[in-house]
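Project standup — Tuesday

K.O.: blocked on the structure for the chain from last sprint. Re-posting the sequence here as requested.
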Amino acid sequence: MWKILGILQKNLTWSIPVFMILGLAFGNFSTVDFLKSWIIPLTFLMVYPMMVTLNIKELLTKGDARLQIAAQLINFAVIPFLGLGIGRLFFPDNHLVVLGLLLTSLLPTSGMTISWTGFAKGNVPAAVKMTVIGLLAGSVLTPIYLKLLMGTVVNISLLEVFRQIIFIVFLPLIVGYATQLLLIKRFGKEEYEKKQKPKFPMFSTLGVLGIVFVSMALKAKAITSNPIILLYFLLPIVLIYAINFVFSTIIGKLLFKDKDAISLVYGTVMRNLSIALAIAMGVFGEKGSEIALIISMAYIIQVQAAAWYVKLTGKIFKEATLSPTT
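H.V.: unblocked you, prediction finished:
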């Protein structure tokens, strides 16, 4: 089992499309109503493991305030409006898809932010702090952004979004941190870091793939009747990530040393699509599957783009030396 989960985690560029196809096939040939009951457990499976591995103590470290401020300004003053603008440009009459692109752009960083920063030899401690700050700030600001930016065209309950945020972010955060402390107490810090911690992202990947499967299955018949819609969804997602990478790279090169700039790029381009999916499926009910569809497709672009950027890091940032694993 561990081997299979490890393979799925390391190869998201193909495992996500495979589960999308499986969901599409299942939804066309089977009754899918029962899958709605899977959303809550899959959401917890997706988010909780990420919280177990989160190093909250990094918030207490000092010395990179300017870098952290720049990252969060990009995350909350630039990228959400980029996603919203591109969404309205491409889908002026489809408010749910625009909402999906806003959610895709609104929640910054993921566990892979730290991994990709490490692969590219960037400032990993700064990336860890960006991940924690982005998670907490995004959780508080997301309901407000959704209500202010989309509340006039989509029925958004501010209270319901906050309730879902508490359930899918803060509750797993508390339980995950308690799990981390218990594991460290039982196995010791060294064994936790080497043997226990690496297992949890695999379960998170299983939750992601499950949600992708469910969201595709619930929309399968609509997609089959109009398959070109998948291509329409891909173009704006590619555009958002391309602009994001270019903008963050320019800011990083102008204002920071190379290692800090690399962490800035991955701390502002990588989005927490797992939580975005959880909000879409948890808050918007039947409509959530359409919102989740475009978020699911963003996984494909995000992983591919992050991998290619690692390969280009040595050319973009001369001081950076690529990891042998890349």
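K.O.: great, moving the ticket to review. Confidence is low (pLDDT under 50) at residues 321-326. The chain has one domain: 34-190+228-316.
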